[in-house]
UniProtKB/TrEMBL annotation:
A GO term, aspect molecular function: monooxygenase activity
One Pfam family cited in the UniProt record for this chain: p450
Region (Disordered): 1-20
Key word Cell membrane present: no
Cellular component annotations (GO), alphabetically ordered: endoplasmic reticulum membrane
Biased composition (Basic and acidic residues): 8-20
PROSITE patterns recorded: CYTOCHROME_P450 (PS00086)
Family assignment from sequence similarity: Belongs to the cytochrome P450 family.
Chain residues that bind heme: C432
UniProt cross-references to InterPro entries, sorted A to Z: Cyt_P450, Cyt_P450_CS, Cyt_P450_E_grp-I, Cyt_P450_sf, Cytochrome_P450_Monoox
SUPFAM superfamilies found in the cross-reference section: Cytochrome P450
Compartments (UniProt record): Endoplasmic reticulum membrane; Microsome membrane
Protein name, entry field: Cytochrome P450
Amino acid sequence: MPVHRAKQRDAEPTEQVSADHTHLGRVQSHYLPHTTGTLRAICSEPPVSMLSQTYLFIFAAKHSVHLKVHSRTGRLQKSREKWHTHRKMITPTFHFKILDSFVDIFSEKSQILITKLQKEVGSTGFDVYQYVTRCALDIICDKHVSNGCCRDGDGHPGPRSGRDKFRICHCSVRVSVNMLTFRMTLIVPFQATEILRQKIFQQCVLRFNVTTTHNGRYATGWHTLMNCNRQVIQERKRKQLQSKETSHIEQDGDDIGKWKKRVAFLDMLLEAAEDGAKLTDEEIREEVDTFMFEGHDTTSAAVCWTLFLLGLHHDVQDKAYEELEGIFEGSDRPPTMKDLNEMKYLERVIKESLRLYPSVPSFSRLLKEDIEIGGYTIPAGCSIRVSIYMNNRNSDQFPNPEKFDPDNFLPERVAKRHPYAYIPFSAGPRNCIGQKFAMLEEKTMLSYMLRHYRLRSLDKREDINILMELIMRPENGIRLNITPRIKESNKI
Ligand code: HEM
């Protein structure tokens, strides 16, 4: 591989990152000092430069790198061939006709959420994050998938104590994700030769394995999650065989028709495997793991950040509430797909919240060809991270980037922007497969919250310590105060 030398920069990566984040309050990048320290220890000999992925967080934000970046490396990765086959197989399960059938489950779980929140009415404040996470995990698992494992964020007992299983499962996801983030922040200088980069990476991993207790926690968390999902798959397969319960699937010929009725994701995978795609149990498990992670952590973060902003901007909250009143006219009925599509203002609120607080703050890609960014040549073969967080704050595209302004998503404003000015779901072939699912889920949860409670955030934006992990979360949760909205006819 030809080694292209980039122009050298002298500044320290961690300093550069913090400097660019100062206007946002305290953004915690607590893995970076450790990582940089590790790197320094290993790369003490010249000419290895400290110029690294960390800078690309900055560069990628200011220059469009999307067109030359082809495939991803990093989290939840699989080989290109495997990814392509699985993506093709899973895509029909996100068809709008199928999503329609999920609206009921969104409502069912959101109803439980607002009921559970009643006990917080009158309290001086509480962290809404755990409540929302439980709701989102329950939605993604649904009773079919979670049967035997993490069912019961809501008190419906599973075969073993549901609450315990929720804890095991959620904690496993959390520990694993944290540890994965730690591993991913091992930085390798991009102008090092391929051999040197591999050597550095191996040494980093070795140090990580030997010197930290994190690895044990990571392994334990991950194995708990994997075993849990293995059990669920076996259990589900056994049940399908026993009861030959295929009646929930309509065999009317086309790919979409097969899934018209609501079936759990796991059922769809099991069917697809039988259909000849020949997924092994381990491959099914990998998909379930991915969905459990991608499908709940991302949405719960997004919902919580939106609640936070609504709790700060009461004018926006009132406007969103008025829109809901217009749709439901005081009724407590659950939303239909048509209702959700009519929530245009709430959609703008959600999009603007995701702009300021993207659940996935960055993603990795492997460069297939050399790329010029800001006068620097980054050679093919490098793994880079693209910062969604910074990209969404480009002042050329969003003139007042820190201001929370849902009108940024008025159609006429969107039409004037670069297509990649806003990429919370990434872009290109490996973008988020669940974005429509996520938008419907968010609208349902948020509309339930707004219809039943008036929200007040107890912290200011600058007081929130943001953790830039795989998922961007507030370190100490989101503290809210809620009061019921009194309706003449319907009280909760
Ligand atoms: C607000 C909510 C969400 C956000 C912000 C989000 C964001 C993203 C982003 C940025 C990626 C690309 C990651 C990368 O390239 O490394 C991604 C991938 C993915 N997301 Fe989401 N996501 C959300 C919700 C969901 C939901 C609800 C599901 C499933 C029901 C889901 C399933 C997936 C899957 C399976 C991938 C991998 C796609 C592939 O590699 O082909 N996501 N998501």
